Amino acid sequence: MDVALSRSATWALRAFFGFVIVFLYAPIVMLLIFSFNDSELPTFPLSGFTLHWYHEFLTNPDLQDALLTSAKIAAISSLGAVALGILASIALVRYRFRGSGPVSALLLSPLVIPFVVFGISLLLLFHAIGLGLGVRSVVIGHMVITLPYTMLVLIPRLQQIDASLEEAAYDLGASRLRTFRSITLPLILPAVVCAYLIAFTTSFDEYAVASFVRGSTVTFPVYLYAALRFPSQLPQVIAVAVMVIAVSLIVVVAAEVGRRVAERRLDVS
Amino acid sequence: MASTPGQRAGHRSRFDLTGPGLLGLPVAWLVVFFLVPIGIVAAYSIDALSIVPGSPVTLRTWRELFGGDPFLGHVYLSLFWKSVKMSLIVSAIIVALAYPLAYYLALSGTKRKYILLLLLIAPFLTSYLLRVLAWKVLLGDEGPINSALGWFGIGPYTLIYTQFAVLLVLGYVWLPFVALPIFVSLESLDRRLLEAASDLGASRWQAFCRVTLPLSAPGVAAAFLFVFIPTLGEFITPSLVGGTNGYMYGNQIVDLFGTGFPDWRTGSVLALFLLAVVGALTIVFSRLLQPRQVATD
Question: Could you give the residue ranges of the DSSP H alpha helices within B1-69?
Fold first, then answer.
C-alpha cells in the first residue's frame, strides 16, 4: 500500500495536473494559431493560413531596433551581473567573516523589492545626480535585479565543490587568481553559463524598471507594451510573441539540461 | 548557518580579508544603485529633495496619508486595501491549486517528475508581457472566447477590463512558479514518517493532516510570499487588462510619476509605504521559516 496516495487519488491528481497543463499552454497555443491566421482581428472562425505577419515583422525596422536594443542591454547587464555574482558567491561560500548574514540579505534583497518602487528609486537617483537616461541606466538597473538570480545558481554549485581542491592548488604555490582560473572556474562553468542565460532572459523581458529609466530608448518589452494599445499592430506582435516564446523556452530548457549533464560529467571525472 | 563541505575550515581564513575584499564591488554596486536610491525616495517624500527647488522640508504628505487628510488618506489607503485584497485572493487561490500539483509530483512516485516539473514551470520562464498579451487577445470582446461562445449562441460577455480579468491573468502568470517552493518542501519530506503514521493506524487523510501538511507549511508560506509581494506592487497587468475596475496601488504610484500631473512627493510616500509593508512581511516570514530549517539540519 502506498502511504502517500491511494490509487484513485493518484488518478484524480494526474487528471488535475493534466488539466492545469492544458490551462497553462492553451493561451500560448492560441497565439501560435492566430499568428498564422489571415485576419486583422484575432477571432473565430479562422480565416485562412498566412505568413504575412511574420513577413511584416521581419521588415519592420522599429521592431528590429527594439529587439536589438534589448539584446544589447541583456548581453551587457548579464555579463556584469554574473561577474558580480561570482565575486559575491565565492566570498559568501568560501570565507567566514563577521556580518556575512546582513551582507547576503542585502545582496538578495532585490528579489523582494516591488519593481515599481525600485524603478522610481533609480529614476530619482539619476535625476538627483543629473545622469542622463538611456541604455546605460537600464543596464545598471538590470544588473541590480538579476544579481541575486545569478547568486541563487552559483552558490549551490560552489557549495558542492570540495574546497580541498582549491587548497591543494594554494599549497602547490598557485596564486589566488591562478587557482580561480584553473580550478574553480572550470568546475563552476556550467552554473556560470546557466546564470548568464537566466540573467539574459530576465533582462530581455524586463519592462517595469526599464519603463522608468529608459529615457527615449525603446526596448523590446517597451515596444510590445506600446503596440498592445494599437489593435492594428496586434497580428505582427503576436507573430513576434510566438517566436520569442519559442526561443526563450528552448534557451531555458537547454540551459538547465546542459547544466545538469555538464555538472554530472565534471563530478564523475 | 551550518558549515558546508565547500567551506574552508581552519585558522588560515580567520584573519583573511580576501572574502570581504571580493564583496567590495557587488556590495558597493547595491549600495549605490539600490540603497541610496531608496534614500533619495525618502528625501523626496519629505521635500528634502523636490522638483520645485527651495521647498521647505515637510511631513505633510505622510500625515495626510495616515488620517490627517480625510480625502487623500482615504483614497490612497482604500486603494491600498483593495490591492491587498486582490493579491490575497490571487495568492490564496493559486497556492491552493499548486499544492496538489506539487504533491502529485513529489509523492506519487512518478518516474518523470523532473520532466513534469519542467513542463509545469516552463511557461513562467517565457515572457511575462507576452503571456499577458495572450490573455488580452483571448478575453477581448470579439476575441476567441467570445466568438467561440457566439457559435453556440451564448454571450458575448464583458471579460476584459474587469477586476476578474486582473485576478485571472495574475493567477495564470504566477501559478507555475508557486508550485516550486511547495514541491521542494514536499520532496524533502521523509517518507518513513508517513509509514510510521500508517503503522500506528492513521488513515492517509489523518497522516496528511497531521504529518505532511505541517511539515510542508514553510514551503507553502514561502510560495505565498513569493506571489503576494510582486502582485501587491503590480501595475503592468492591471493597466493592460484591468480598465478602471482593475486599477491597483501600483498604477497609482506610476501615475504620480507620469507625465500628466506629476506629484513626486506623494508618489514617494506611497512607494515607501509599499516598501515598508513588503519589508515587514519578508522579515516576519523569514523569521517564521527559520526555526524549522535549524531543526532539519
Answer: 18-30, 36-45, 60-63
